């Protein structure tokens, strides 16, 4: 469900750019509202889990997600960019509860030695959600006509306003279907019993927020993981934010309806890429597998930035093959650095807060696009992120060798 919401963001960006006549940097504020919600609420969600349960946090997340989708009803009628951003932020608040609980919950449902692989397997469903969101957006929001920019430029006055109102009204349609599914999920979670799945510590031994933050701030491996997760989510979000826009810029006659096919192929590649990664990580060091993935990814996005324009969009699609295992592997490995399990929930929440990279890196890429006048060249930002994440996994591999020798 959070994959579907993220996928729809990538549809909303080209829609809002044309309707509200925004720069590339301004369109990226869709992601800033989305991932800013994660950042602000994650620690609160972790404290809620500590006082209640993972199940309760999931249910709160579903309720808030429903509220956020409901806000698209007034947003589609008020027709201002700011109101849409508020609705997207509200959805993200619910998703922050969902991810803070579900990711940590998955890592704890079994032996610690297989927590990273288990998280990779559970996260395989996220790109299915991404695909669902993008398909809903393509068929319910976009028209198979001229590009939005050309449609709006061809009319004036009342006719132009009528077209804009219709286009904004179409943004509501996929959220109606999501609302129905969310209500069913909420009922299922309410009726299903789940294990408590929390560290066995006495109440008197539980850590306060101050003690937890002090502990985590001295954990260098944990802090490096936060940085890597920030860059990865930023990389992924930036690539997805501008995938539909890239063929619109580089392929003459392309419209949003057709360009969204590249986003569908990208999410399919993201999904497929997880399977060989899961296979390789069950037989080799996860760090070494991800060193190879991120190195190839960096080269691929350099090609996107400076290669032939008609091939660049295919480089973006292929880059998705290499992104799939990054988030769960960084999350699982970083969570494993927390030896004192009293700090597990808050540590997981802070890792979710690192999602704020998705609010920052797309805006940075948008500024590069606006400054250079080339959306294609701006993909160099993603290449730099891939390279930095590769350095993180090189460091992880080095520490693993040192631990084995010790």
From TrEMBL:
<feature type="transmembrane region" description="Helical">
    <location>
        <begin position="221"/>
        <end position="242"/>
    </location>
</feature>
<dbReference type="Pfam" id="PF07690">
    <property type="entry name" value="MFS_1"/>
</dbReference>
<keyword id="KW-1003">Cell membrane</keyword>
<feature type="transmembrane region" description="Helical">
    <location>
        <begin position="56"/>
        <end position="73"/>
    </location>
</feature>
<feature type="transmembrane region" description="Helical">
    <location>
        <begin position="288"/>
        <end position="306"/>
    </location>
</feature>
<feature type="transmembrane region" description="Helical">
    <location>
        <begin position="119"/>
        <end position="141"/>
    </location>
</feature>
<feature type="transmembrane region" description="Helical">
    <location>
        <begin position="79"/>
        <end position="98"/>
    </location>
</feature>
<keyword id="KW-0472">Membrane</keyword>
<dbReference type="InterPro" id="IPR020846">
    <property type="entry name" value="MFS_dom"/>
</dbReference>
<protein>
    <submittedName>
        <fullName>L-fucose:H+ symporter permease</fullName>
    </submittedName>
</protein>
<dbReference type="InterPro" id="IPR011701">
    <property type="entry name" value="MFS"/>
</dbReference>
<feature type="transmembrane region" description="Helical">
    <location>
        <begin position="374"/>
        <end position="394"/>
    </location>
</feature>
<dbReference type="InterPro" id="IPR005275">
    <property type="entry name" value="Lfuc_symporter_FucP"/>
</dbReference>
<feature type="domain" description="Major facilitator superfamily (MFS) profile">
    <location>
        <begin position="1"/>
        <end position="400"/>
    </location>
</feature>
<feature type="transmembrane region" description="Helical">
    <location>
        <begin position="175"/>
        <end position="194"/>
    </location>
</feature>
<dbReference type="InterPro" id="IPR036259">
    <property type="entry name" value="MFS_trans_sf"/>
</dbReference>
<keyword id="KW-1133">Transmembrane helix</keyword>
<feature type="transmembrane region" description="Helical">
    <location>
        <begin position="25"/>
        <end position="44"/>
    </location>
</feature>
<feature type="transmembrane region" description="Helical">
    <location>
        <begin position="262"/>
        <end position="281"/>
    </location>
</feature>
<dbReference type="InterPro" id="IPR050375">
    <property type="entry name" value="MFS_TsgA-like"/>
</dbReference>
<feature type="transmembrane region" description="Helical">
    <location>
        <begin position="347"/>
        <end position="368"/>
    </location>
</feature>
<feature type="transmembrane region" description="Helical">
    <location>
        <begin position="312"/>
        <end position="335"/>
    </location>
</feature>
<keyword id="KW-0812">Transmembrane</keyword>
């Amino acid at each position: 469900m959070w994959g579907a919401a993220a996928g729809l963001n990538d549809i909303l960006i080209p829609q809002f750019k044309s309707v509200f006549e925004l720069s590339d940097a301004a369109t990226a504020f869709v992601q800033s509202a989305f991932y800013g919600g994660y950042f602000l609420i994650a620690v609160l969600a972790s404290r809620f889990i500590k006082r209640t349960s993972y199940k309760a946090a999931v249910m709160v997340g579903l309720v808030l997600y429903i509220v956020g989708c409901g806000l698209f009803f007034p947003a589609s009628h008020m027709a201002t960019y700011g109101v849409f951003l508020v609705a997207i932020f509200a959805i993200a608040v619910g998703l922050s509860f969902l991810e803070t609980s579900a990711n940590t919950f998955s890592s704890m449902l079994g032996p610690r030695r297989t927590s990273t692989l288990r998280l990779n397997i559970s996260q395989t469903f996220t790109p299915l959600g991404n695909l669902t969101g993008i398909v809903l957006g393509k068929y319910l929001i976009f028209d198979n006509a001229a590009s939005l920019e050309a449609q709006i430029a061809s009319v004036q006055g009342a006719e132009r306003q009528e077209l804009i109102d219709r286009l904004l009204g179409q943004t509501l349609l996929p959220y109606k279907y999501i609302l129905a599914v969310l209500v069913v999920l909420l009922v299922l979670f309410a009726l299903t019993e789940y294990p408590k799945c929390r560290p066995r510590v006495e109440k008197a031994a539980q850590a306060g927020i101050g003690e937890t933050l002090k502990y985590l701030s001295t954990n260098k491996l944990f802090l490096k993981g936060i940085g890597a997760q920030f860059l990865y989510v930023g990389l992924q979000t930036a690539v997805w934010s501008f995938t539909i826009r890239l063929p619109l810029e580089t392929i003459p006659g392309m419209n949003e309806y057709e360009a969204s096919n590249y986003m569908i192929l990208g999410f399919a590649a993201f999904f497929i890429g997880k399977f060989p990664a899961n296979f390789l990580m069950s037989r080799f060091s996860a760090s070494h597998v991800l060193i190879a993935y991120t190195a190839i990814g960096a080269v691929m996005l350099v090609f996107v930035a400076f290669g032939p324009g008609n091939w660049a969009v295919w480089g973006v699609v292929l880059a998705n093959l290499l992104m799939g295992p990054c988030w769960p592997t960084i999350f699982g490995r970083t969570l494993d650095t927390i030896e004192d399990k009293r700090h597990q929930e808050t540590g997981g929440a802070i890792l979710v807060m690192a999602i704020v990279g998705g609010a920052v890196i797309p805006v940075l890429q948008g500024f590069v696009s606006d400054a250079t006048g080339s959306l294609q060249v701006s993909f160099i930002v993603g290449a730099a992120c891939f390279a930095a994440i590769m350095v993180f996994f090189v460091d992880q591999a080095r520490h693993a060798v040192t631990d084995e020798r010790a």
